[in-house]
Amino acid sequence: MRSFWLDVRYGLRMLGKNPGFTAIAILTLALGIGANTAIFSIFNQILLRRLPVKEPNRLVMLKSPGPKRGHVWSDGDDSEIFSYPLYKGIAKNTSAFSSVFARYEFGSSVASNGETDRGSGELVTGNYFETLGVQPAMGRLLTPADDVTQGAHPVVVLSHGYWTRRFASDPGILNKVILVNNTQLTVIGVAQAGFTGVQVGQSPDLFVPMMMKPQMTPIRNGLDDWNDSYLAVFARLKPGLSKAQAEAAINVEYKGLMEQNVATLPNLDGKEREAFLNKKMVLADGSQGRMVIQRDSGPAFAALFAMVILVLLIACTNVANLLMAKGSARQREFAIRSAMGASRARMIWQLQVESLVCALAGGVLGLILASWLMNFLVRRIVSDTGIMGLQSNLDGTVLAFAVAATVLSAVLFGLFPAWRVTRTALSQTLKDQGTAISSGPTHVRFRKLLVAGQVAFTLLLLVGAALFTRTLWNLRSENLGLSTENVMAFSVAPQLNGYDTARAIRLADGLRERLAGLPGVRGVASSEIAVLTGTDMGGNITIEGRTPLPDDEQHVNYDFISSNYFSTLGVPLLSGREFRENDNPNSTKVCIISESMVKAFFPNRNPLGVRLTMGGGKSNPPNVEIVGVVKDMRQDHVRSAPHTFIYFPYAQADKLMGMTFYVRTQQDPLSQATTLRGVVREMDADLPVFDLKTLQRVVDEDLFAERIIAGLSATFGGLAALLAAVGIYGVLAYLVLQRTREIGIRIALGAEAGSVRALVYREVAIMIAIGAIVGLPAAFGLARLGESLLFGVKAANLAIYAVSLGIICVVAAAACYVPSRRATRIDPIVALRYE
Fold it and tell me: Is the CB of residue 647 less than 8 Å from the CB of residue 559?
């Protein structure tokens, strides 16, 4: 140990003697390590981290691929969603699982201490906390006794984050009553710190017993309906039972549950009945919870992580090149050490200690950079995507990664230069004062190969940055079918405050009237579903005079909207009319359809005047008249192709889940934000306004993944180009120094400045050519693998590869300028005396 600390002290002295080299090396490593640590932190939280619960490896998530009938709510894979009666049947099976629980996310309006705000809640079965092994931070958690009878358990558990944020960690909140969705609930406890539910990106504020669903979701109960699917179901495997054994056990009884389900479905033909009865239960790994964000954003973050690793490799290559140059000047030192009896292994160890000291300094600075970058990324991710529960602190896993990256970097950039520097023959080194050997052809070739590797890595990053930037450009240029300029959007959920449908319609009518009267407002409209937020409603339709199609071909999306909806959003009306104020419950039922629906259902027929209905059957004849056709618009995502869509007047809706309002103004819509809140407060002071933002920001949030990956990949590409420039400059400066005598002789014999510059540029051209031969095919291969992340651009876009190579050439030319200029100014007399 004493020897190690002596090596550390010596290493510090040597680094101190070369402050320029040390500063460049530390800063280069800090950039690489810091960027890697920050991206790994996000990558780990979204894609790698297990739930902070008891034995997460014993948790499984239940899936049942196959047909579904009735109402289906899902924010991901429909096969992961079950009805409550089906969950109860599964939970009775004790042969495979020690416990089975279910959960459902719901929006909440929370009133306490005279304030009402929007919150996120989770309906959970009584064994939820017990199965997960979550402990209370205060009070108690829900138990099976709190989840027996519908509507009879008005209790709530607060998440630790919500308790801290909303109630300032006040222990007095225990046993107090708060109003949640117009229902009085008693706070019985606070969940342990760090527990944010079982789905990454969702961070529930409240946990409410499942039996309180009629009160928490007053528009739809569904607890007794076999064909109302909304629950995500998890189970804990019995001790000693494998996932495969549990899957076999549960499927023995699952067929009987499907028979009960089929009994509730009238009019099933033989093929559909067989499909239901043949459904199987599949057990997926539940240690990380529901994998919704992982499926949606995982590939983008994986691509970013791969790119940032390339940045670290380039940084290590750069430092290795610097060490090779620095080591050349120290060969005499190591020759003398060798003559005095030092072994080669001992000298390599000394150089590795120096590399480790340099890397540690870079790692410490990198952690500071990582902390800043993590704060920035988490704020952007939470504000732009609503992915909750992410943390920006440097936890143990992130610190361990940073340490590993630091040590690995020291090995990557230090070991081979140390091995090269210490292999020189003792007698030759002492004879030539450490110059001739250090400038030998093998030594120079290796440094050139390092730069060629930098060029290859940089090409990978530049091509990726160009592809992702082009993707973002294409998406921003995409015709959405609507105008986002000067439009403010906000949402309300009056049903959560006890409104019935008739009262909610009157509220929407009143709000639209008041908003339209505000100065500077050009148009006001509303819809039940907010555009470009990934939300949709759908179902099968029946059209008069048309033979019914198979279920999957009859499925369309629908929404309930106000009059002037399309004119306010700038969606062209192709034929017919928009809705009018007199399209109400007492008038003829009407609808407007999209252009895509005309192509799909009325290819050779004028749809105006035709009647249709949602659903089918003799008891539900077509009674809704088509009165208009509108141009397609992007309803759920910018990337999504237009859907077949039906729009109904919200005044003719049986139920309204909520309402999003759109206000088009003559000036900056943000200036109206406070006024809009005030109008809602005048109508109902207890009604929370949420998602108040411009429609352009809605678009930006929908494109967040593309924006973040384009921005960071461009940053990484620029950083890689800068590091490559430093590497090229270092090698060329060294080559000019090495060939001083040769260049001086050429100039003495009459060589012109252009031919001398050509010598230098020829060297860099060779390095770029080698890097391009390796880097361009590798970039194409990686682009093909990630082609699903692209939009409007193909991996085989030759222009992008040409531009990326052109950038490298420009960077190399800039790096060549000073060394080539220095070469042309060599004095022949001085050069002839060189060495």
Answer: yes
Q: Domain boundary at 702, 719, 745, which?
A: 702
Determine the pLDDT at residue 393. 78
Provide Rg for the chain, Cα atoms.
34
Q: What is the DSSP letter of 226?
A: T
Q: What is the pTM of this model?
A: 0.80
Task: State whether 470 and 500 are in the same domain.
Answer: no
More confident residue, 832 or 585: 585
Residue 258 lies in a domain: yes
pLDDT digits (tens, 9 = 90+) for 169-214: 999 999 999 999 989 999 999 999 989 889 877 889 999 999 999 9
Minimal CA–CA distance to 569: which of 656, 699, 475? 699
| The two three-digit tokens of residue 635, written as one number | 């309803």
Q: Which domain holds residue 566?
A: 487-702
Beta-sheet pairing, 624-630 with 590-594:
parallel
Please, where are the H alpha helices in 44-177?
Answer: 84-91, 128-132, 160-167
Structure tokens at 615: 């659903």
E-strand stretches of 615-658: 624-630, 645-649
Residues 6 or more apart whose CB falls under 8 angstroms from that of 207 comprise 121, 122, 124, 128, 129, 141, 142, 156, 157, 158, 159, 191
Environment class of residue 149 by beta-carbon count within 10 Å: exposed (0-12), middle (13-18) or buried (19+)?
Answer: exposed
Is residue 805 within 8 A of residue 772, CB to CB? The reply is yes
Is 48 inside a domain boundary?
Answer: no
Judged against a pLDDT cut of 90, whether residue 608 lies above it is answered with yes
Q: How many CB atoms lie within 10 A of CB 170?
A: 12
Q: Which pair of tokens denotes residue 489?
A: 């959007």
Nearest to 424 by CA among 414, 416, 434, 415: 434
What is the average pLDDT value for the chain, to the nearest integer?
A: 84
Are 116 and 183 found together in one domain? yes
Last residue of a domain, one of 244, 260, 287: 287
* Residue 710 shares a structural domain with residue 670: no
- Whether residues 573 and 666 fall in one domain: yes
Please write the tens of the pLDDT for every residue from 787-809.
888 898 998 889 999 999 999 88
Asked if the structure places residue 42 within a domain, the reply is no
Per mean pLDDT, which of 78-82, 429-433, 738-742 is the most reliable?
78-82
Enter the DSSP assignment of 650.
G
Same domain, 74 and 113: yes
Say yes or no: 646 and 721 in one domain.
no
Residues 204 and 352 in one domain: no
Q: Nearest Cα to 482, choosing from 591, 579, 594, 567?
A: 567
Overall domain count for the chain: 4
In a domain, 665, yes or no: yes
Query: Residues 500, 405: one domain?
Result: no
DSSP assigned state of 374: H
Angstrom distance (rounded) from CA 121 to CA 396: 30
Amino acid identity for residue 70 in this structure: G
